[in-house]
Amino acid sequence: MAKEQILIIEDEEDILALIHYNLSREGYRVSTAISGEEGLRLARSARPDLLVLDLMLPGMDGLAVCRALKQNPETAEIAVVMLTAKGEEADVVAGLELGADDYVTKPFSPKVLTARIAAVLRRRGKPAESEEGLLEHAGLTIHPGRNEVLVDGVAVELTFTEFRVLQFLASRPGWVFTRYQIVNAVRGDDYSVTERAVDVQIVGLRKKLGSAGKLIETVRGVGYRFKD
Ligand code: CA
Questions:
Q1: How far is the CA of 20 from the centre of ligand 1 (A)?
Q2: Which of 69, 91, 125 marks a domain boundary?
Q3: How far is the CA of 105 from the centre of ligand 1 (A)?
Q4: 124 Cα: distance to centroid of ligand 1 (angstroms)
Q5: 61, 92, 125 - which closes a domain
Q6: Dist. CA 29 → ligand 1 center (Å)
Q7: How deeply is 44 buried, as exposed, middle or buried, from its count of CB atoms within 10 A (0-12, 13-18, 19+)?
Q8: Rounded (10°) CA dihedral 112, 209, 156, 159
Q9: pTM listed for this prediction
Q10: How far does residue 63's CA lie from ligand 1's centre (Å)?
Q11: Is residue 172 within 8 Å of 129, Cβ to Cβ?
């Protein structure tokens, strides 16, 4: 079975070997690089489907690699899962805003990493929810066309901004969005929305959604995610 091609960029050899072993065992075609420069070259020539990208690399770091790939239309579609250390939330935020798909914090279990990779590849394989599409998830129903939200069949009154925030998060279950990305998605409707105000919108949303409020998850230091 022809599985996707994955490139791992990681300078720590034991971690590189561990990931290589586990991804190969899952049937992926795996290539590796131990520096950002080498990884970027390989990514450009081999065009993998997904990159496992350590952020802390000597020389060209992971964020610089991610930026270079996303700026080039020929490599912008390559999915990126970042490897980060604890306390690097600011880098995670920067990476997500550059277009990375997800991240795993070290130390991680190979099982978690392979599950995240499979999820990213699965999500990229299917088109994003259309603006008009009805969204239903664990008792929550969102009618984009009607600006209507139901929890267990009962209509919930939301402000327009709250609705847009919810719709944006729910359009991609499982994806982590930074506050900046959320602001960007809902701006144009209300210029007064700031990153700080996103937190206020989320508090209001959770309260109004009641039992469905827990579908909006806080990703500490990074942003928010709609439960997958
Ligand atoms: Ca490293």
A1: 15
A2: 125
A3: 12
A4: 26
A5: 125
A6: 22
A7: middle
A8: -90
A9: 0.80
A10: 12
A11: yes
pLDDT by residue for the chain (228 residues), tens only, comes to: 558 999 999 999 999 999 999 999 999 999 999 999 999 999 999 999 999 999 999 999 999 999 999 999 999 999 999 999 988 899 999 999 999 999 999 999 999 999 999 999 988 776 555 545 678 888 899 988 788 999 998 999 999 889 999 999 998 888 999 999 999 888 765 667 788 889 999 999 999 999 999 999 999 999 999 998
**Token digits for 66?**
């991610």
The CATH number covering residue 158 comes to 1.10.10.10
Q: Ligand 1 mean position to 28 CA, how many Å?
A: 22
Structure tokens at 86: 């604890």
Q: Tell whether 152 and 113 lie within a shared domain.
A: no
Q: How far is the CA of 129 from the centre of ligand 1 (A)?
A: 36
Cβ neighbours for 172, distance < 8 A, ≥ 6 positions apart: 123, 128, 129, 226
Q: Report the separation in Å between the CA atom of 12 and the middle of ligand 1, taken as the mean of its atom positions.
A: 6
Q: Which residues contact 222 (CB under 8 A, 6 or more apart)?
A: 89, 92, 93, 96, 176, 178
Contact 95, 221 (CB under 8 A): no
What number of residues does the chain have? 228
Question: Which candidate, 207, 206, 186, places its Cα nearest to that of 195?
Answer: 186
Q: Are residues 139 and 198 in the same domain?
A: yes
State the distance from the centre of ligand 1 to the C-alpha of 211, rounded, in angstroms: 41
